[in-house]
Specification:
Helices cover 40% and strands 13% of the residues. The longest helix has 36 residues, at 222-257. The radius of gyration is 21 Å and the shape is globular. With 361 residues, the chain is α/β, with parallel strands linked by helices. The protein has 2 domains: 2-233, Type I PLP-dependent aspartate aminotransferase-like (Major domain) (Aspartate Aminotransferase, domain 2); 239-360, Alpha-Beta Complex (Aspartate Aminotransferase, domain 1), CATH 3.90.1150.10. The structure holds pyridoxal-5'-phosphate. Pyridoxal-5'-phosphate binds at residues 50-52, 80, 82, 127, 131, 156, 158-159, 179, 182, 190.
Length: 361
């Protein structure tokens, strides 16, 4: 990214001089890298400020472009707020939204989806990987159901890009939201994949200079874009090895905690992100647990995006967890820098804290 802050400072939309060309060449290369990462073509990548904006563009853009055909949208109870909130907004405008429940393992039941389709369904939005419990939804099967009914299929892949393989053809995706910062890239940059063949009707939400094929006006920021592509490239290069390594570390963590007993794994045991473990601890107070572990490990009980809210996680509630258990849950995030030593330390810290809290109770 560094040379694009200093040496190559041109505007990629300035095509009448060398400075613009340099910046444009870098953006074009990044666009190709990102497209190749999801088996798309470069013209199908629309840069945005992140997955929140990509989701807003996808959901509101389809709703606006298709409302003559229908006003029904299908999504899932466990989606990120960056999908749920635009859906709630669309509902306030007169759209009807079906929120599919999930099974106790966090996965959508394909029969529920089948039954939810209506004559006037215009869009299905199902996330690739859940940000709290890590489960991987069966995108290819869902995409097939959408394709059969000619309903646009969108997925929020903020947690998935660079960690699991994504293929817009094999998964029959029409729209796919991406972001850089969940895969060690810079914050404030993401993209929406928009299928060209068959063309997906999408209404722009930002109007101006007509950038990004008219779908997202605003000057592109080359340092962010270059960093985004590099982060995804590195993620893909290491994916197989890293995924095996993280799965083994996650197993080590789960097995280390198991002797505590009265634990609940949240989300499917294997169909999940390698680096995610989410556990509910019976018999402890969630707040006390987090406080007790503050010095040992950086943890959260839910999403960073909902720290302002004190309600129990809507994702854990959708799995059928009680309020008390939802509060007494920890999401462990294992990543590129996580070592076996750290897992041992975390196991020791969590075991000691939970035991102490249970004794006090
Ligand atoms: C982080 C996240 C988002 C928001 O992405 P930003 O790039 O921060 O806007 C959306 N959806 C999911 C599933 C996420 O994990």
């Amino acid at each position: 990214m560094v040379p694009f802050f200093t040496e190559y400072f041109g505007n990629p939309a300035s095509l009448t001089h060398m400075y613009g060309w340099e910046a444009e060449a870098a953006v074009t290369q990044a666009r190709s890298t990102l497209a190749a990462a999801i088996n798309a073509s470069p013209e199908e990548i629309i840069f945005t400020s992140g997955a929140t904006e990509a989701n807003n563009l996808a959901l509101k853009g389809i709703a606006e472009a298709c409302f003559g055909r229908g006003r029904h949208i299908i999504t899932v109870q466990t989606e990120h707020n960056a999908v749920l909130d635009p859906c709630a907004y669309l509902a306030s405008l007169g759209f009807e939204v079906t929120y599919l429940p999930v099974q106790s393992n966090g996965l959508v039941d394909l029969d529920d989806l089948e039954k939810a389709f209506r004559e006037d369904t215009i869009l299905v939005s199902v996330m690739a990987a859940n940000n709290e419990i890590g489960v991987l939804q069966p995108l290819a099967a869902i995409g097939e159901q959408c394709r059969d009914r000619q309903v646009v299929f969108h997925s929020d892949a903020a947690q998935a890009i660079g960690k699991i393989s994504l293929d817009v053809e094999a998964m029959h995706l029409d729209l796919l939201s991406l972001t850089a910062h969940k895969v060690y890239g810079p914050k404030g940059i993401g993209a929406l994949y928009v299928r060209r063949r068959p063309r997906v009707p999408l209404a722009a939400q930002l109007h101006g200079g007509g950038h990004e094929r008219g779908l997202r006006s605003g000057t592109l920021y080359p340092p962010q874009i270059v960093g985004f592509a590099k982060a995804v490239e590195l993620g893909l290069a290491d994916m197989a090895v890293e995924s095996t390594r993280l799965t083994a570390l996650r197993q080590r963590l789960w097995q280390g905690l198991a002797p505590l007993g009265q634990l609940h794994l949240n989300g499917h045991g294997t169909q999940r992100l390698p680096g995610n473990l989410n556990v509910s601890f019976e018999g402890v107070d969630g707040q006390a647990l987090l406080l007790g572990l503050r010095g040992t490990v950086a943890l959260s009980s839910g999403a960073a995006c909902s720290t302002a809210s004190t309600a129990p996680s809507h994702v854990l509630k959708a799995l059928g967890r009680s309020d008390a258990l939802a509060y007494a849950s920890l999401r462990f995030g294992l990543g590129r820098l996580t070592t076996a030593d750290q897992i041992n330390q975390v196991v020791a810290g969590v075991v000691a804290t939970v035991q102490a809290l249970r004794q006090m109770a």
